[in-house]
């Protein structure tokens, strides 16, 4: 679960020949839960901002469609050649 490094201490039980395990990235469960909650909240805020941005873009295109001359029933999303 960890990396092995040379140990200056003797009497280490499990690692072979004077090597000591180094635990990397160990966190308490409460920190992990808190970090997951913060990550989820940031994602929800980012999703909300993106949704608002897309609604604004769509509203702008809708306003542009009202300014473009067209025939009734004609799709404005298609370009006529």
TrEMBL record:
Name the PROSITE patterns for this protein: BHLH
Positions of transmembrane segments:
none
In terms of InterPro entries, this protein maps to:
bHLH_dom, HLH_DNA-bd_sf, Max-like/E-box_TFs
Q: Where is this region: Disordered?
A: 1-25
The record's Gene3D superfamilies line, in alphabetical order, gives: Helix-loop-helix DNA-binding domain
Q: Which residues form the BHLH domain?
A: 41-81
Give the domain of life. Eukaryota
Q: Please give the Pfam families that the UniProt record associates with this protein.
A: HLH (PF00010)
One cellular component term (GO) for this entry is: nucleus
> What molecular functions are annotated in GO for this chain?
DNA-binding transcription factor activity, RNA polymerase II-specific; protein dimerization activity; RNA polymerase II cis-regulatory region sequence-specific DNA binding
SUPFAM superfamilies, alphabetized = HLH, helix-loop-helix DNA-binding domain
UniProt keyword list = DNA-binding, Nucleus, Transcription, Transcription regulation
The record's subcellular location field reads: Nucleus
Family matches, as PANTHER family: BASIC HELIX-LOOP-HELIX ZIP TRANSCRIPTION FACTOR, TRANSCRIPTION FACTOR AP-4
Q: What is this protein called?
A: Transcription factor AP-4
